[in-house]
Amino acid sequence: REPKDFERVCMLAVRGLDALLDYQNYPVKAAEIATREFRPLGVGIINFAYWLAKNDLSYTDPKAFEKVDEYAEAWSYYLIKASADLAVEKGACELSNDTKYSKGIVPCDTRKIDIDELVTHKERMPWKELRAQLKETGIRNATLMALMPSETSAQIASATNGIEPPRSYISVKQSKDGVLKQVVPEFRRLKNKYELLWDQPSPEGYLKICAVLQKWIDQAISTNTSYNSNFYGDDKV
Questions:
Q1: Does the predicted TM-score (pTM) go above 0.90?
Q2: Which of 184, 205, 150 is nearest to 51 (CA)?
């Protein structure tokens, strides 16, 4: 898969979720009002660890930053573009003018500049044209991206959790419906490519990848930091 492959799936995700906002019921009036005003979405990422393994990359490998940056940029661009095009077609959200998007400001414009020390900032997508479009016609959805652990959706899709490193090759997950054993995708072929959570001396590589992803995301990332005490003196972190 290439970054350009995000275009269709991002368009479908935005259009489908935006339509759902009008279709669903709201038990609380305040939620209905806020949704109508901002039409917020939260498209996430799952199976990230599998993607790294397939590309012979790991959380602790600095070579991953450039590729993560390239793919995250395309994902972000196509989500924003889909919402901007939907604003032209169906109208911007009521409080579009209260968003940075309406001023032509996209997530990478408000990044912490220190992130550029991890990966040199590049704009591979036609952001200039999109910024101009946003200024002129606004955005349909005030927020578009949200990264979370995605335990349930990853389980349903037989994928690795969100952007998290897998805890082990086989995870045992229990719910009210019973116990499910889940194996990482393509275990036989990629077993030696996966970087497991408890094999990492610290979450530094994971947090740096989160920093690169955050550059392209319009909401904060829900992260989990884990430390294996075996890597520290006296088993103490």
A1: yes
A2: 184
